[in-house]
Amino acid sequence: MSTSQFSIVVCTYNRLDYLKKCITSLLKIDFPQYEIIIINDGSTDDTQNFLDNLKNEKIKVIHNQHNQGLSASRNTGIKNTNFDIIAFTDDDCEVDKNWLTKLSKGFNDKQVGFVIGQTFYISKNYQGYFPERLVSNKNAKWPMGCNIAYQKKVFATCSDFDSFFFKYNNEDSEMAIRVVSKGFSFGRAPEAIVYHQAMNWTSKSILRSARNASVWPILKKKYPKHYLLFGPPIKFNIIINKEDYLYLLTAPIFITLLLIRYIMHGKKDLKIFFTKWPVYLILRRYYIYKEAIKNKVLMF
């Protein structure tokens, strides 16, 4: 395994403005040898034209004729890499110039299957407010797909990203848990930093994300010895996101206080506010109960 050569896989779909900033940061990386594989997942904006006109020997572009989803696109990227270590980031992220150097130091043993980096939203000390989508991974705790690197041999041994988990937005979690369950170890590299670009929730994206937590009954059944590996918000191995119950039980007071805070920060979109509080919470509980019953797992 050579740690001085990296392949970087980036998948994109209709987010050209984000992608341009991402590519700019990738080309500023200070590292001996790396390639960038960009998978355009059937974008209908000007992404294809932009990518076709890129002239850089580090960049290889692959166009999907139709949108196939993130997992399938990542798997296409994996198959088109040339080096032993594959780093993943997303089109709405920007990487630090020392990103690969810091990730590479985590591969200090041949059994290290993957290394997790640290992700900040916009900047290290930024404090945002809803409806900003505050995507972060402090101290490299979670195996987020926007800042992680795998040994290529892992995919030969453990197979690729599973598209089934895309609807739960947890294909990254399942992949990492699966790899460890197959006998690989992992490392953390908090110095390997990625910055998530500014992004806001929409009512549609909030409702879609309500399904995310319902992945845990599935993962508990599939990986009973490993599903708690990265410290998910599960109390006593059965209560998922326990704070939801407190929020719902105190909804009149809790939501009123949140609404006052929301308005004081100059926010006016009441539709998105009430989509989050309480519709999202109720939907999240529903999906969790549904999957727990379906998989015959004691979780709620």
In total, the number of strands is 10
Strand fraction: 15-25%
Q: Could you name the CATH topology of the largest domain?
A: Spore Coat Polysaccharide Biosynthesis Protein SpsA, Chain A
The number of distinct structural domains comes to 2
* Amount of helix: 25-40%
Strand order of the largest sheet: 3-2-1-4-7-6-8-5
Radius of gyration: 20 Å
Quick one: overall form?
globular
**Could you give a short account of the major beta sheet?**
8 strands, mixed
CATH architecture of the largest domain: Alpha-Beta Complex
Helix-strand makeup class: alpha/beta
How do the helices and strands follow one another from N- to C-terminus?
A: EHEHEHEEHEEHHEHHEEHHH
CATH class of the largest domain: Alpha Beta
Organism: Candidatus Magasanikbacteria bacterium CG10_big_fil_rev_8_21_14_0_10_36_16
Pfam families: Glycos_transf_2 (PF00535)
InterPro entries: Glyco_trans_2-like, Glycosyltransf_2, Nucleotide-diphossugar_trans
Keywords: Membrane, Transmembrane, Transmembrane helix
Describe what you observe in this structure.
The chain contains eleven helices and ten strands. The protein has two domains: 5-200, Alpha-Beta Complex (Spore Coat Polysaccharide Biosynthesis Protein SpsA, Chain A); 201-300, no CATH class. Helix 7 (203-209) runs parallel beside helix 11 (270-295), helix 8 packs parallel to helix 11 and helix 9 crosses helix 10. With 300 residues, the protein is an alpha/beta fold.
